[in-house]
Amino acid sequence: MPTPRVLVVSGSAGHGHVMAAEAVMAALRSNHAELDASHLDALTRMAATYSRIYRWGYVRLVDRHPLLWRILYGITDRKPTRLGHWLTVMGGGRFVQAVRRWNPDVILCTHFLAPELLSRAIRKGRLDTKLHVLITDHDVHRIWHWPEVSHYYVASEEVKARLALRFGVEESAIDVTGIPVRPQFTKRRNLAAARERYGIDPERPTVVFLSGGFAAGNMAAAITGIWLERRDTQIIAITGRNARMRRRLAALPRPTGAALRVLGFTRDVAEVLSLADLVVGKAGGISTSEITALGKPFVISAAIPGQEERNVMALAQAGAGVWAPTPEEVRVHVARLLGDPKALRAMARAAKRFGRPKAAGEIADALAAAAGPALGPPGPLFHGAL
Fold first, then answer.
1. 382 inside domain
2. 290 and 160, same structural domain?
3. Residues 6+ apart with CB under 8 A from 249
């Protein structure tokens, strides 16, 4: 009998879905070496024109036209468009063929594009596999649900209830695991060594800014505002691959005593976040999971309309974060929390309760069970029983 095969399928429209896939793959490799596991980005196997338009269109909509995105999100949540579905089917033929050739026993989809295509292939009898879906936000948009999906992994009991009540999914087919985080967010840290690397004074408060979805002007205004309230605040700003933002922040006038470290693309984001007394950033599903897995209070500065607004609600209801959509509100909330150590500690405890650092391992275990047992190497032909 061949080795059981698990395929994890993501989609690189944004980074979160890929990071979720990488987290599960790391857990599969660490805990289930007996499986043949692989990761595939669906958009790399789609028609090139479709992939370019899909990535560009999504980023353009959420970044430049959020109100239009909100309308589109609501329309497709009520009823998927036939045109959109058939464009996806026409663009996805090569991807479906690649999956069929690999012939997995179970597939985990961390992006909603793959189940739309693979459900159709299963329905048409072109693919025989177990289809699992990992929902990477605290919301359930209609496009995540397909009758051919045999199992779901979700962020919370509220998402489970929404999936069951709205779409009639059996509760036994839904596991509340949380959203998975990569191994760097679960390992122990030498904080003294990390502080020395980044020039952080342990006696002063430290705030980390994450740039996703945050315009450079707004981030600059928020940082300047914090210094007006608390000049002793040490700020680390991670700007990713946005070189323009990095240059602008590095050039900010700094009052006497103010400390600012601007970082570009950072491989070990978890190490930087581990130094924070609180974090300021966007409410992406993966970001919220990573920040709360570290037990860090979260001042939420931006959210994509639709799914990320649900993330804000979930964090606020849990007491793990606070909504601050303008630089002025960021300034007020950061100053308030830094000035009230008791409230800051309470929010950190709530973040720790909210975080699910073991999610990736739980999902990997479930996938291994669904894929079936692997047979060991064959024994000798004559083993002494005769």
1. no
2. no
3. 216, 219, 220, 223, 237, 239, 260, 262
Q: Which amino acid is at 130?
A: K
Number of domains making up the chain = 2
- Residue pLDDT, tens place only, 176-222: 999 999 999 999 999 999 999 999 999 999 999 998 644 445 899 99
Give a three-class secondary structure readout of the chain: CCCCEEEEEECCCCCHHHHHHHHHHHHHHHHCCCCEEEEEEHHHCCCHHHHHHHHHHHHHHHHHCHHHHHHHHHHHHHCCCHHHHHHHHHHCHHHHHHHHHHCCCEEEECCCHHHHHHHHHHHCCCCCCEEEEECCCCCCCHHHCCCCCCEEEECCHHHHHHHHHHHCCCHHHEEECCCCCCHHHCCCCCHHHHHHHHCCCCCCCEEEEECCCCCHHHHHHHHHHHHHHCCCCEEEEECCCCHHHHHHHHCCCCCCCCEEEEECCCCCHHHHHHCCCEEEEECCHHHHHHHHHCCCCEEEEECCCCHHHHHHHHHHHHCCEEECCCHHHHHHHHHHHHCCHHHHHHHHHHHHHHCCCCHHHHHHHHHHHHHCCCCCCCCCCCCCCC
60 and 136 assigned to the same domain: yes
Q: Full-prediction pTM beyond 0.70?
A: yes
Domain residue limits at 75: 5-181+358-371
| Residue 133 burial (10 A CB sphere; 0-12, 13-18, 19+) | buried
Any domain includes 340 = yes
Mean pLDDT of 231-259: 91
Is 120 in the same domain as 223? no
